[in-house]
């Protein structure tokens, strides 16, 4: 990557991103109800649970630990953490609201005042430092009661319950929050429906039908939330949120190219096409026929989806994916959660995720070419092992290198390719519990949290080397990437 000094556009939204279940802790406090993340075990066993059929959504403390219960205790330490974000110069802070703090079981008629008051305090603290919140309405933390009693998003009733929840928070925080997103990484359900749709695929069950029906319910719910957001908060912006990994063909063989294109459409574009363009894409009908999928669509659904499209696309970017037809086990990457084949041009992270900054520029171009709406990189970062040196410092140059290259890719997409990019919130700006593995040792933060996989640690916060680097990047509006 060449060394250039070009600033980002005025008003670019620099910041960091988190989710309630991975950071707050206080899982029983303030009348909060249990959610999905509360029953997911810590450690690599979590990946197994997420991918194998038949998970029972029960807590079993004799066998597993549950790191999300305490997480990093943001629930009690938010003031200290927000002060650190302010010190880095954050313009925005992305967080999610835990549905179970507002509706502990998800189906009450009246919200829980203690939960609402908690986020009032958090938003007030952010505004005290001039930081705008960016709020995800649902980030892998559906009320457990909705999982057990309703079957998660399989059940149409959830659209009503979600709309009630969305309207309550939109109204309550109408003067405090202007940037919203509906469902975190909505398309991730194609690989892990447990986290984002609140149901496990049962043994012997065909996975396609329930997942696509649940998508339809979420699209209706998303449209209802967009409608409510625009009604309640004029001038607000509400986006979708997609897990985006550009799909490369392994070579120029047209059959591999076609396969990559088809994978890209199903995984990357299907949800965006519905939420941004307001209609089911033409390619999906053939896919539905092939897999015997028949959607139950009620009168008025398609009109609602058409009318209430999102204002921007939020997306996460961690890796690209390389595909070929007829891949064997030996071709596969070890770590990528998206199951591509190995790309010989890319290095991998400590967790085997392929590192591809150019892929971010490609993603920005592809998304903007297709949709022509503002984009927002709401997650990107390096999960790595960090070491605390004897002098107490954390020299995370590998994280700085990673971020520098990714930020430079965004800069080039803006200045050389004409992409409209609103902002960048790096994932896990403070160390938190990993979503896929429940580990603390998979650290993303600029701020180190003294908490370990076995649950030990003082929870003290420390500034890493990357903290000071990111602070300079923000202060120079992206100009000081290379010093
Ligand atoms: C995204 C999620 O998939 O990636 C986050 O929105 C998650 O919740 C992040 O934490 C990084 O993944 P992981 O598994 O390393 O925590």
List low-confidence stretches. none
Give the full name of the CATH homologous superfamily. Answer: Glycosidases
- Examine the secondary-structure arrangement and name the CATH architecture: Alpha-Beta Barrel
Query: Can you summarize the main beta sheet?
Result: 8 strands, parallel, barrel
Radius of gyration: 21 Å
The helix fraction, in percent, is 25-40%
What is the ordering of alpha helices and beta strands? EHHHEHHEHHEHHEEHHHEEEEHEHEEEH
Count, helices: 15
CATH hierarchy, class:
Alpha Beta
- Averaged pLDDT, please? 96
Q: What share of residues are in beta strands?
A: 5-15%
Distance between the termini: 14 Å
**Secondary-structure content class:** alpha/beta
Structure description:
The chain has 483 residues and is an alpha/beta fold. The chain has a single domain, classed as TIM Barrel (Alpha-Beta Barrel). Helices cover 38% and strands 13% of the residues. The chain is built from 15 helices and 14 strands. An 8-stranded parallel barrel has the order 1-2-3-4-5-7-11-12, surrounded by 4 helices. The protein has a two-stranded parallel ribbon with strand order 6-8. A two-stranded antiparallel sheet has the order 9-10. Helix 7 packs parallel to helix 9. The protein starts with 12 loop residues before the first strand and ends in an 8-residue tail after the last helix. The model has no long low-confidence stretch (mean pLDDT 96). Bound molecules: 6-O-phosphono-beta-D-glucopyranose (BG6). 6-O-phosphono-beta-D-glucopyranose binds next to loops.
């Amino acid at each position: 990557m060449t060394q250039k000094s070009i600033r980002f556009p005025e008003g670019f939204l620099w910041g960091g991103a988190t989710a309630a279940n991975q950071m707050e802790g206080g899982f029983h406090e303030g009348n909060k109800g249990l959610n999905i993340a509360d029953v997911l075990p810590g450690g690599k066993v979590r990946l197994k649970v997420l991918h194998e059929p038949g998970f029972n959504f029960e807590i079993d403390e004799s066998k597993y630990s549950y790191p999300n219960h305490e997480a990093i205790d943001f629930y009690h330490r938010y003031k200290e953490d927000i002060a650190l974000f302010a010190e880095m110069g954050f313009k925005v802070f992305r967080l999610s609201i835990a549905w179970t703090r507002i509706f502990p079981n998800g189906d009450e008629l009246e919200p829980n005042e203690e939960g609402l008051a908690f986020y009032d305090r958090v938003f007030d603290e952010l505004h005290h430092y001039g930081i705008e919140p960016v709020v995800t309405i649902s980030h892998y933390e559906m009320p457990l009661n909705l999982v057990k009693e309703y079957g998660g998003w399989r059940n149409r009733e959830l659209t009503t319950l979600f709309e009630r929840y969305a309207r309550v928070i939109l109204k309550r925080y109408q003067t405090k929050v202007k940037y919203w997103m509906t469902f975190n990484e909505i398309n991730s359900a194609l690989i892990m429906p447990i986290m984002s749709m609140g149901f496990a695929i049962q043994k012997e069950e065909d996975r396609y039908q329930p997942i696509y029906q649940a998508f339809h319910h979420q699209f209706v719910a998303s449209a209802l939330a967009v409608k409510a957001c625009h009604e309640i908060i004029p001038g607000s912006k509400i986006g979708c949120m997609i897990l985006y990994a550009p799909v490369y063909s392994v070579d120029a063989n047209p059959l591999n190219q076609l396969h990559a294109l088809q994978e890209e459409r199903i995984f990357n574009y299907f949800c965006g096409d519905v939420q941004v363009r307001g209609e089911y894409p033409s390619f999906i009908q053939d896919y539905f026929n092939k897999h015997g999928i028949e959607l139950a669509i009620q009168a008025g659904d398609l009109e609602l989806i058409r009318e209430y499209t999102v204002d921007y696309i939020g997306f996460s970017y961690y890796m690209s994916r390389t595909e070929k037809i007829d891949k064997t086990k030996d071709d596969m990457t070890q770590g990528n959660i998206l199951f591509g084949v190995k790309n010989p041009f890319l290095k991998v992270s400590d967790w085997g995720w392929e590192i591809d900054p150019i892929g971010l520029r490609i993603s920005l171009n592809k998304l903007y070419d297709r949709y022509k709406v503002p984009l927002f990189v709401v997650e990107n970062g390096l999960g790595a092992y960090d070491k605390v040196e004897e002098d107490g410092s954390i020299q995370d140059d590998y994280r700085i290198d990673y971020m520098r290259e990714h930020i430079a890719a965004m800069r080039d997409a803006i200045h050389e390719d004409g992409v409209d990019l609103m902002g960048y919130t790096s994932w896990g700006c403070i160390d938190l519990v990993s979503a896929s593995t429940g580990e603390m040792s998979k650290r993303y933060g600029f701020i180190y949290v003294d908490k370990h996989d076995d649950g030990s640690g003082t929870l003290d916060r420390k500034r890493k080397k990357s903290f000071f680097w990111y602070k300079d990047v923000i202060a120079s509006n992206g100009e000081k990437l290379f010093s």
